[in-house]
User: Which sequence fits this backbone?
């Protein structure tokens, strides 16, 4: 009998096809186990984020996770990706269609853990919170501030409509829903956590809930809920699981984030954690029949302006690179890595007799693109919108802008040269005096003072062109408005009477650029080129000779590049390319002349 029970358990571990995914199931919590149809079920989950993966590749990435040995997919949902303005939601277009992603998971015989926030962290812009919240000067987030909870409730109710019929209790694949994320690392508003759970319940979520926190007493006390399973970020030994049991002996616990890789900031070396310790952790979890989730099994890409940032002191700022490769088992291009093969091997050892994992899906085609020539240029200074007048600089959020760049202009009266100080620069500024480039200030280096030289004009014109990089997504310094968030002074004199130019560099802005065959006169330029393809495939756009900026291919924003590295190539997926003529646009903050550019098959 004991051998039969062990066999049944292992069948539940790695062979989800035993369960009809189109039938209604129960998923409940005992004190020690997750129960699927009243039987112990070990969750072996691989996390990936629909917003970071082109919709055309969703199924491929899901199948890759299944072939590695996962029976479940975990997915963060990013509130700010789906609600662009208050009450303006998109859950239908492209990779915004969360219900479609969940149905693909179901089609492929897997279950799903939903991680909807409203806060998620995830190295994502503002941790998933919408930037419009920051237009409220004194708003407090992740607590019972009514301005915040009103917006959060609107999001939860709207998302619940998309997912409630996809719960296992309704015949779908959704097993559990997470409440908030690592709240014990941020705050202690237990009323807020309980309120979130009640909003989800009232919105039709009936599967079990769980929370995620570090295996630390104070985090678990502040972040957990009485009737929610405890996720541990991370956990792979007895003492860590014992902390969860001590915090709440009435619910099961699991490793909600097991890290096969790690995140990378601009200016760092690529983070590549030791694989041997990962294999040891996986073996311990499998031997002890503990559920766990690989964070992440496939990272994808922070296309556009979606990369976040970290800060653990008031003066620290660490923006994340565009790639979210994460040194994950499935790399940014969706390819199996040596780490993937090692994990697949160890997980296959726990399969029931005579069962095998599915074949690894074939990789997507990869191409090179010969060097591209640029034929025209457009200066940002010739494409400024109407000015907004303001006594002092205002951040983007206060003038209705979500992301991109913003320019501040004033004339100097009184002091005309000396020490220019920008108080609370967020995040990277190029400074011009009478149209001449003076230099840059970089928040990552805590730079905020630059010398202004003397000018020959009576009232010199000062322009400060600011790039807002990722909003901080973790810990206590999350209120991170972009642009100049305080004031500008010259030799201690506060500078007044500013013109503000919003420059989101979005689709509308780019479509209105006026390109010409001339040469760039000053820093801050868009360069446009074309290239021909006979076949399409994934590629990386090589940017190693450029300074700092953004790249668009056929209108798709590939994200940021920066010469400080470590990332020098930007991922361009095949669905964004086409046979025949393709267009590329590069905006660079510093280059006056376009540099060589090409498509390569891999990232350094």
Assistant:
């Amino acid at each position: 009998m004991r051998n039969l029970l062990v066999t049944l358990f292992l069948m539940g571990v790695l062979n989800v096809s035993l369960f009809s995914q189109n039938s209604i199931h129960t998923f409940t919590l005992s004190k020690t186990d997750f129960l699927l149809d009243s039987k112990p079920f070990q969750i072996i989950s691989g996390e990936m984020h629909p917003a970071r993966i082109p919709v055309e590749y969703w199924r491929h990435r899901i199948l890759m996770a299944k072939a590695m040995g996962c029976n479940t997919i975990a997915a963060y949902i990013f509130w700010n990706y789906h609600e662009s303005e208050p009450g303006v939601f998109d859950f239908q277009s492209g990779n915004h269609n969360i219900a479609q992603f969940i149905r693909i998971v179901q089609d492929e015989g897997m279950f799903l853990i939903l991680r909807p926030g409203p806060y998620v962290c995830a190295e994502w812009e503002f941790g998933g919170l919408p930037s419009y919240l920051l237009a409220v000067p004194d708003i407090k987030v992740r607590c019972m501030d009514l301005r915040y909870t009103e917006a959060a409730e609107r999001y939860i109710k709207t998302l619940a409509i998309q997912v409630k019929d996809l719960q296992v209790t309704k015949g779908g694949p959704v097993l559990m829903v997470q409440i908030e994320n690592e709240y014990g690392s941020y705050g202690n508003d237990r009323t807020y956590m309980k309120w979130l759970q009640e909003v989800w319940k009232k919105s039709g979520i009936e599967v079990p809930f769980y929370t995620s926190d570090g295996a630390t007493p104070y985090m678990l006390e502040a972040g957990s809920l009485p009737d929610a399973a405890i996720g541990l970020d991370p956990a792979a030994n007895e003492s860590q699981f014992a902390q969860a049991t001590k915090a709440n002996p009435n619910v099961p616990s699991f490793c909600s984030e097991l890290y096969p890789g790690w995140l990378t900031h601009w200016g760092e070396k690529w983070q590549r954690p030791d694989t041997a310790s990962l294999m040891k952790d996986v073996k311990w979890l499998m031997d002890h029949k503990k559920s766990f989730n690989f964070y992440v099994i496939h990272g994808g890409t922070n296309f556009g302006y979606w990369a976040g940032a970290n800060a653990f002191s008031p003066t620290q700022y660490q923006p994340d690179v565009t790639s979210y490769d994460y040194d994950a088992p499935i790399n940014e291009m969706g390819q199996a890595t040596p780490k993937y093969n090692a994990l697949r091997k160890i997980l296959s050892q726990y399969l029931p007799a005579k069962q095998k994992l599915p074949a690894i899906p074939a990789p997507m085609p990869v191409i090179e693109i010969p060097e591209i020539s640029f034929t025209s240029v457009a200066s940002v200074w010739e494409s400024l919108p109407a000015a907004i007048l303001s006594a002092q600089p205002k951040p983007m959020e206060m003038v209705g802008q979500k992301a991109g760049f913003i320019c501040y202009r004033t004339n100097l009266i009184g002091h005309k040269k000396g020490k220019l100080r920008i108080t609370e620069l967020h995040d990277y500024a190029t400074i011009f005096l009478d149209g001449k480039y003076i230099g840059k200030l970089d928040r990552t280096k805590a730079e905020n003072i630059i010398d202004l030289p003397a000018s020959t004009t009576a009232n010199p014109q000062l322009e400060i062109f600011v790039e807002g990089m990722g909003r901080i997504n973790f810990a206590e310094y999350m209120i991170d408005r972009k642009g100049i968030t305080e004031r500008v002074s010259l030799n201690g004199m506060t500078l007044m009477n500013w013109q503000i130019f919003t420059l989101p560099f979005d689709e509308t802005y780019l479509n209105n650029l006026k390109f010409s065959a001339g040469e760039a006169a000053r820093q801050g330029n868009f360069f446009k080129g074309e290239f021909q393809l006979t076949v399409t495939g994934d590629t990386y756009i090589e940017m190693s000779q450029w300074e700092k900026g953004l790249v668009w291919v056929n209108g798709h924003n590939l994200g940021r590049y920066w010469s400080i590295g470590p990332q020098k190539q930007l991922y361009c997926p095949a669905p964004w390319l086409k046979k025949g003529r393709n267009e590329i646009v590069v905006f660079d903050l510093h280059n006056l002349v376009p540099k060589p550019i090409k498509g390569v098959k891999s990232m350094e």
